[in-house]
Amino acid sequence: EEIEIQPDLTYEEEPLRILAREVKELRNKQIPLVKVLWRHHNIEEATWESEETMRQQFPQLFTSGKFRGRNLN
């Protein structure tokens, strides 16, 4: 699979699926997080991201059935 490189030698990351969900508690605030597997990256390189941000930028991850709501850690 080829990676499309921009003129400034960058490329756009594309999430494949959500591997896990977690809620972090900081004082009186709860922050929902999702663990994201990115295209062209191994599962060991999956990152924890804000669920709210991911829903805004990539709503298809939450509506296509790619996220099962299970924590796979």
Based on the model shown, name its key terms.
alpha+beta, elongated, 73 residues, single chain, 3-stranded antiparallel beta sheet
Helical segment count: 2
Mean pLDDT: 86
Give the ordered list of helices and strands.
EEEHH
Radius of gyration: 14 Å
Helix percent reads: 10-25%
N→C terminal distance? 27 Å
The total of beta strands comes to 3
Q: In terms of per-residue confidence, which ranges show pLDDT below 50 for 5 or more consecutive residues?
A: none
Structural class: alpha+beta
Strand order of the largest sheet: 1-2-3
Query: Mind summarizing the main beta sheet?
Result: 3 strands, antiparallel
User: What characteristic shape results from the CA principal axes?
Assistant: elongated
Q: What proportion strand? A: 35-45%
Question: What would you note in describing this structure?
Answer:
The protein has about 70 residues and is an alpha+beta fold. A three-stranded antiparallel β-sheet has the order 1-2-3. A hairpin with a 2-residue loop joins strand 1 and strand 2. The mean pLDDT is about 85.
